[in-house]
Structures are given as structure tokens and as C-alpha cells.
Specification:
228 residues; alpha+beta; 5-stranded antiparallel sheet; elongated
Amino acid sequence: MKTLMSTLLALTTMLLVACQSNDLGTGANTVDRDYAKPAGDVSKAALQSAQSADLKVLRNQHDQLGSELVALRGDGKEVHILVKGINDKSSHVSVRVEPGDRDLATLMHERIAGSLGMGAATSGWWSGGNSLEATYSADLDACTSSARRAIASLDPISKSEEVHSTWCHMDGRLKDATPIRIKLEKLEEQKTRATFIAGSSKNDDNKACAQKMKDGFETTTAPSAGSQ
């Protein structure tokens, strides 16, 4: 009896390992994100993203509640994009790239965000997201560390950075896919200008988010005298 139980246990373990090593994109390898956009807009963006990636669309079914898109990559692997409306202003999107490629699924999400005009946080007088700017009596390295902490404090689903000797960008994406950025520019050895940007359009939520980034930044780096 003990021998039989040991054999069954060994077989079960082997099957579990095989399933984990041949994940077809379900569960942990499906990348989920929420978007602060209605399902109809997100469904259109998903189709545009598949087409811009030169994928062959096999199926594209949609209604008022969302959509399901299946496309084929050049290597024969399928891409599945499922859009479900959360309410009239937001949606949930699941992306799976066979055989469980999370990097490509994440890249497809970035394409969808770009098609929705949410590719990167931008600022401007008439267009772009909400932004705040201030000058700090600290070197670029110290401000870079403060920017990392400020971005992390908002619990983003993804982060990236580009650091140079005289400037840097700290980017993130919030759980509703809103892009955020802290832009730093070295003015002098102990003087750095920071711009806090939230979203790609102006609204109250992005305004509040920009203020949160600035407040988080200033928990470790105080603004210069006279700076906003």
C-alpha cells in the first residue's frame, strides 16, 4: 500500500511540474489591467493594437458589455484579448499570448494604452495631463531617489526609468492604466527642477495624482525657498 501511495504521489508531482512548464497562458501568465475608459473604446483600441502589430485577426466578437479578440502571430501562436466593462467609464482587460508569454502580453497592454491616448504621461498648456513643477536644493542623485520613492508610493502596476547625467524620467502606470511621470532636470550641482505629471489629459483625478507625487517626493526632499 505504501509503495502504491508513493508511486501515485510521484506521478502527481510529475504531472504538476509538466503543467507548470507547459503553461498555455492561463492563470499567472494572463496579464490583467483595468483602464479608465469605457468598454467600447477599449475594444476598438484592442483591435487597432492587434492590427498595428501585424497580427492576423481570427475572431473579433463584441457587444455593449465588452469584446473577445483572437489573433494570430507570425509564428503561429495565438493572442487572446478579453475586454469586460466594469461600469460606463472603466473596463477590465485580460491579455494572454500563447504559450504563456507575459512579456508579450504586457507589451500588448502598452499598445492598447497607446491606442487609447494613455501611452505616456505628457504635459502642456492646452493638451496633456495635469502637472506641477518645483525647484529643489538637492543634487540630481538625491532627487532621483526621492522620485523612485514617490512613484512607488502610488503602488503602480509597472515602472520604468531613464537616467542620464543631467536629467532623468521616472515613469509608472497606475492600476487604472493612468500613466505618471516625474521629470528631473539638473540646473546646478545642488539645484534640480522636478515636474510631476499625471495622465495624458486634464481632470480632477490627474490633478490630485500629480499633487500626491509631489507630496511624496517632498517627504525626503524639501523645495527651494520661493519654489511652488
